[in-house]
Amino acid sequence: MLNNFLAFPLKEIPIIAAVLIIAFSVHEFAHAYTAYKFGDSTAKDQGRLTLNPAQHLDPLGTIFMFVAGFGWARPVPVNRFHFKNPRLAGVIVSLMGPVSNFLLALIGYAILYFYVVTGTSADFPGFILQFLNYFVWINLVLFVFNLLPFPPLDGYRIIEDLVPPRTRAKLSHYEQYGALIFLVLVIIPPLNSVTISPIIGYVPELFLRSFQTLFSLFQ
């Protein structure tokens, strides 16, 4: 019965949970670390410059990951006024979260590919192969999902820093409505199935095929 409400089989939830803890923690740490290197210690001062998942997991975002197949962590606080070049640094800080998930997916695929090609994957316990497969897929989903141009996702923050100041002021005025629209798209299944879900399903698949093509060159 519970399986009907989950995006993943119930027996695989412990594996998914382990992947999410790593993926969310690294994502938010990447934001915090990059901001700190650019001169903003806000995240560090609030205890977010850490890989400790307890500091990063968002209850609602984690639940959505299990139910809908995508989710989010608690946003890292960033004060752009501490940056020497606020717009450029802001874009890089926002990008580093999704980029960290992309790199995790690439590393996971490299490990998986190596053991499959060398034939040693047959000696692996099944749960390790499951973990690696989910590790690659979930990190790719988080990479794509977080680049969507809706507040409070990273994609929206990137747009904020790229547009002229006057446009940014207008965006901030409508930000609360954008966040509400995004939440509606996420929560209502008929809308979700024709908006976010196709993107989350199709784009990570393209990257996965790109990984396959890239690593096949080393055979």
UniProtKB/TrEMBL annotation:
Q: What are the residue boundaries of the Peptidase M50 domain, all occurrences included?
A: 128-187
UniProt GO cellular component terms: plasma membrane
What is the membrane topology noted in the UniProt record heading this document? Multi-pass membrane protein
Q: Which UniProt keywords apply?
A: Cell membrane, Hydrolase, Membrane, Metal-binding, Metalloprotease, Protease, Transmembrane, Transmembrane helix, Zinc
InterPro entries this protein is in?
Metallopeptidase_M50B, Peptidase_M50, Rip2-like
Spans traversing the lipid bilayer: 12-36, 56-76, 88-115, 127-148, 177-200
Q: What is this protein called?
A: Zn-dependent protease
